[in-house]
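Fig. S4 source data, part A: sequence.
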Amino acid sequence: MTLRNSRPWSWPKRVKWAAYLTLTALAVGCAATPDAPTPAPPEPVPAKPTEPEVDLIKVYETLDRAEAALTGDHLSSPEDGSAFALFTEALKLDPDNEEAARGFERIVERYVELALRALEREQYATARSMLARARLIDAKHPSIEPTAEQIRLLSTARRTKLDLGGDLQNDSVRQQLAQFAVSPKGFDCRFVIWATSDAEGRRIYRALRDGETTTRLRAQILIRAPVSVERQCFPS
């Protein structure tokens, strides 16, 4: 039997519409789904500041000027142009410069040397002044305290001087030296010998030693006229 007015089978319109809406919703839902969160980029690491380049030409020029000031005994005062100021400037230009750092020690050593020279001339105020300036630069320098003690002892010593105008081969002169070498009771003494040559100084020392047999005689020989001996005694 043949059915009239028949047509090919197809989805009803209502079903087609429902399917269309379902697919559209799925598409919109997929589009609306947020992606996984993107990690934040790492914060930039600040670059290390570049150290300024050392101007070696300026450093060497400053060190040369400091050396000239040191040679001329322009050590720290007046400050402008002094060895101390120039070594300080060189160290600011190049903080690792060993020559500049060593310069301060050399200044102290020179002040100590000047203090000892003043001490030899019995210029005690000058010796103390030189040492005070050394302390301002480096109070812990190992040469300062021994020098200060030496200044203290010599500035308070009992001094006796014997002028030697005669021939050292003369028995009376030698006997005079032997007697002079004996320290007063209660004192320890040392001697400073002024002679015109080292050989003459040694002859005077031997004559002194002949009179002092109980202890080792301490003496310093200085080449200078007139010929004489100074006895410096300290309470024992």
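Fig. S4 source data, part B ends here. Residues 1-11 have pLDDT under 50 and may be disordered.
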